[in-house]
Design brief:
binds magnesium ion; alpha/beta; five-stranded parallel sheet; 12 helices; binds adenosine-5'-diphosphate; elongated; about 10% strand; single chain
Length: about 270
């Protein structure tokens, strides 16, 4: 390479850095050699490079959204066994994977016993939302309530609420596993009403509607919460017993299979 060429490459890298185009900087020489070999014109060369930059940016942004969502474990729809949970409408889940409900600010309520795949489905749906560019947060309901209670002064409370207000989708996992205090219920109601028609919610719960009063404390608050939540809401019921229990039983009953394998060793564990 001639000295003038080397100088322009150095300058080019300097400009690309200033313009914040790291992928163009990393790929420009390789793609230039390829373009020369393919007899591609200047515009096709530029097109290839800008495509690479955009793809890389999108990939990194999606990774950031996944990280910001703070999923406890990553679950996908591919690993969800629909045949083990016939009450879950596969067509509805496939439709929800398109994320139109987020555009329409609709909610999803997942009701069923512990271990029946509610968090798994909620995670798969929310991860898909991240991939599609939505801002998502996954949080256990008790954790959210504790954080709100602990944000004692006005400023940190508003900052926390502001973080939730920016979301497109909020997953409230395990609503109702422990009864909330009076203050806790009111704070939770506040989050749910702030989200109403602005942020989609996915709520997972083991509680049938008639038991919500026991957890939220007052009839009035329960009525108001359910009213916000279930207006424009899709309900998925994961009926039956725990998946792992079901899986372990099937393993034990299968002729010729060892019955000594423990549930924790099952390949479906998280
Ligand atoms: P829940 O939130 O209803 O208590 P989870 O979603 O946490 O239940 O499910 C418990 C475990 O069983 C997880 O590891 C999950 O991946 C697995 N699981 C539950 N249902 C299914 C299913 N239908 N197919 C595959 N794995 C499942
Ligand atoms: Mg769960």
């Amino acid at each position: 390479m001639k000295a003038t060429e080397t100088k322009s490459v150095v300058l080019l890298h300097h400009h690309l850095k200033a313009l914040r185009l790291p992928t163009v900087a990393a790929e420009c020489e390789k793609v230039a050699a390829q373009a020369a070999a393919d007899n591609a014109d200047h515009l096709s060369y530029l097109l290839r490079l800008t495509e690479l930059e955009l793809l890389e940016r999108e990939k990194r942004a999606a990774e950031r959204r996944m990280k910001a969502a703070r999923f406890p474990t990553i679950k996908t729809l591919e690993t969800f066994d629909f045949s083990a949970r016939p009450s879950v409408n596969k067509v509805l889940v496939a439709e929800l994977m398109r994320c139109d409900y987020i555009e329409k600010k609709e909610n999803i309520l997942m009701v069923g016993n512990p271990g029946t795949g509610k968090s798994h489905l909620a995670t798969a749906l929310a991860a898909q939302a991240c991939a599609k560019g939505y801002r998502v947060r996954f949080i256990r309901t008790t954790e959210l309530v504790t954080a709100l209670i602990e944000a004692r002064d006005e400023r940190s409370f508003l900052r926390l609420k502001g973080q939730f207000a920016k979301l497109d989708l909020l997953v409230l996992d395990e609503l109702g596993y422990v009864p909330a205090s009076k203050v806790g219920s009111e704070l939770l109601f506040d989050v749910i009403s702030t989200a109403y028609e602005r942020t989609s919610l996915i709520v997972t719960t083991n509680l049938p509607f008639e038991s919500w009063t026991e957890v939220l404390g007052s009839e009035r608050l329960t009525g108001a919460t359910l009213d916000r939540l279930t207006h424009r809401c899709r309900i998925i019921e994961t009926k039956g017993e725990s998946y792992r229990l079901q899986d372990a039983k099937a393993r034990t009953n299968r002729p010729g299979k060892s019955a000594t394998r423990t549930v924790d060793e099952a390949p479906t564990q998280s």
